[in-house]
Specification:
alpha/beta; Rossmann fold; seven-stranded parallel β-sheet; four-stranded antiparallel β-sheet; cobalamin biosynthesis; Nict_dMeBzImd_PRibTrfase_sf; EC 2.4.2.21; Nicotinate-nucleotide--dimethylbenzimidazole phosphoribosyltransferase; nicotinate-nucleotide-dimethylbenzimidazole phosphoribosyltransferase activity
Length: 559
């Protein structure tokens, strides 16, 4: 079969193969065809991994079967469910060759023509390569099947793929055992009939004009109308006060109304989560307190005696405490969320603080914790931390992410004196100078990061995903937010920075993020105390928006 259109019309996703080996020259020719495929900005972002190991194929098959059961449960139609269960996929082990087609996200670290509008363009390039490979294999008498029903996180771990490498799926390659009556197998088994002709529609009218309502679309595709924003601003301006007279409260009211997309926002079940962990760098004497204070303070949180407990009780805020990686095993019956990655990180002065797997687990655990809180109905979450040595970790992370010199990112933390501050500066500068890893963000996070800081970053990203109001505490929590911001800049819309810390680097970080804090009280305690103290002000912004009279309703003359 050599005619292009015959090849295109034949079945592209083969599910059954003979055990005939795939000659090297066949796969080499096919991969070369993939390499010739359109590639946005000539990035060469597509990568290929070949698999012949029966052990690996079996492990991938088990991953497939686990998700296959989940997929079958998605339909409530009994006959359709039965049909689905009959769609056996033996090709993973049956096909003589496995291929993993991936795209490399690290190419986005440099300017690439074609990716400004959408980073997804490099993924689309990899899909073009998959199509070329299929065409080449079919022309040579072989074929390919695409397996995408997989847990991709586990799939990457199983294959040991770097964080920046993203797989499209697993592709089975070999000689097809059947031609499926020259039609798609799903069609042959009456699962679904493919339409004869493609959908085509000509667009001849420009739909956007100055007279039409303007829409701004956020990163998640949810439209916010200019009409709504205008209505919200009108409501704020027409309260019985001079325009702007309530200052930051008016800014907060507009932000909260915009986040919740309503003229009458309500804060529901506010929750502050304190993440606690130990840091290997603390063993080098960078803190005024011994590492065991982390454990002692977590015990204090659990007994209700810390500042954060007092302020949460005062303002009726739910408080949750998380063991992200304290160097101590708390009793299993403690009123504690257990998300322990390890008993503290290693010292980044001597090597990586954590592994890539631990980094991934931090984001995963942080996300799970916040997701559970969101599912209970909370729409407002504050973040706090506890960990001796974590100002040192946060200072280094701030410096390597923003490019601000380390000496401008280091402060006194929980109260070191001037002499110890100089020592702290020297230690942290030495750690940065001896780093020899690559420039990818996640590699740096794994090398220098702290368990609680990265869990907070993962939690913040999940909070944004659930459209929650995100209250950020002081310097360390702002560094966690910086990480989340680098992952998804749109998160800034949901963030309220509760206070400007006494740490000298905090104002620099707020300026870098182009934002301002509500309060400046010279706080440097952590624990989420700034969130709890600022919360009544946030409630005041909501209260005036919902309850204060307008000029019209009060019969007061506007200017």
């Amino acid at each position: 079969m050599t005619d292009l259109y015959e090849i295109l019309q034949s079945r592209r996703d083969t599910r059954h193969f003979t055990n005939d080996a795939v000659p090297d020259e066949v796969i080499e020719k096919a991969l070369q065809a993939g390499h010739w495929a359109p590639s946005v900005g000539l990035t060469d972002a597509t990568k290929y991994y070949l698999i012949t190991s029966d052990e690996i194929k079996k492990a991938i098959k088990e991953l497939f079967l686990e998700y296959d059961a989940k997929a079958a449960s998605q339909t409530d139609n009994p006959s359709q469910k039965e049909q689905y269960k009959n769609l056996k996929l033996e090709a993973i082990e049956e096909a003589p060759l496995g291929l993993v087609i991936c795209y490399d996200r690290s190419v986005l670290n440099n300017f690439t023509i074609g990716t400004v509008g959408s980073n997804e363009a490099i993924k689309f390039s990899a899909v073009c390569a998959a199509q070329n490979i299929w065409l080449s294999l079919t022309e040579q008498g072989y074929s390919m099947g695409w397996v995408s029903i997989l847990n991709y996180y586990q799939f990457k771990k199983l294959l040991g793929l770097p964080e920046n490498i993203e797989p499209l799926g697993y592709f089975c390659i070999g000689k097809p055992a059947t031609n499926y009556d020259n039609q798609p197998m799903l069609q042959q088994l009456h699962w679904k009939q493919k339409s004869e002709k493609p959908f085509v529609e000509k667009i001849s009218m420009l739909h956007e004009s100055e007279n039409e309502r303007i829409l701004t679309v956020d990163e998640d595709g949810e439209a916010v109308s200019a009409e709504f924003e205008s209505s919200l601003q009108h409501k704020i301006d027409n309260k019985t006060k001079p325009t702007g007279a309530l200052g930051i409260l008016e800014v907060l009211a507009k932000q909260i109304g915009t986040v919740f997309k309503t003229l009458e926002p309500k804060i529901i079940q506010p929750n502050i989560v304190v993440f606690a962990a130990d840091h290997g760098i603390a063993n080098h004497g960078v803190s005024a307190y011994p590492q065991d204070v982390t454990r002692q303070m977590v015990a204090n949180f659990l007994e209700g005696g810390a500042a954060i407990n007092v302020f949460c009780r005062q303002n009726d805020i739910q408080l949750s405490i998380v063991d992200s990686g304290v160097n101590y095993d708390f009793p299993p019956n403690s009123n504690l969320i257990s998300a322990k990655i390890d008993r503290g990180t290693k010292s980044f002065l001597q090597g990586p603080a954590m592994s890539k797997e631990q980094l991934e687990l931090c984001f995963e655990k942080g996300s799970e914790i916040v997701s559970a809180i969101a599912k209970k109905g909370s729409n407002c979450i504050g973040f706090g931390e506890m960990g001796i040595g974590n100002t040192s970790t946060a200072s280094v992370l701030m410096s390597i992410i923003t490019g601000i010199p380390i000496e401008d990112c280091v402060g006194k933390g929980t109260g070191v004196n001037d002499e110890k501050l100089r020592f702290k500066n020297e230690i942290l500068k030495k750690a940065i100078d001896t780093y020899s890893g690559n420039e990818f963000l996640d590699d740096k996070l794994a090398y220098f990061g702290g368990f609680e800081i990265l869990q907070m970053a993962g939690g913040m990203l999940e909070a944004y995903k659930n459209n929650m109001l995100i209250l950020v505490d002081g310097f360390i929590c702002s560094v966690a937010f910086l990480i989340a911001f680098k992952k998804n800049p749109s998160i800034i819309k949901n963030a309220i920075f509760s206070h400007q810390s006494a740490e000298q680097a905090h104002i620099k970080l707020l300026n870098y993020l182009n934002t301002k804090a509500i309060l400046q009280l010279d706080l440097r305690l952590g624990e989420g105390t700034g969130c709890a103290v600022a919360f009544p002000i946030i409630q005041s912004a909501v209260a005036f928006l919902n309850e204060m009279a307008s000029f019209e309703s009060a019969g007061v003359s506007n200017k």
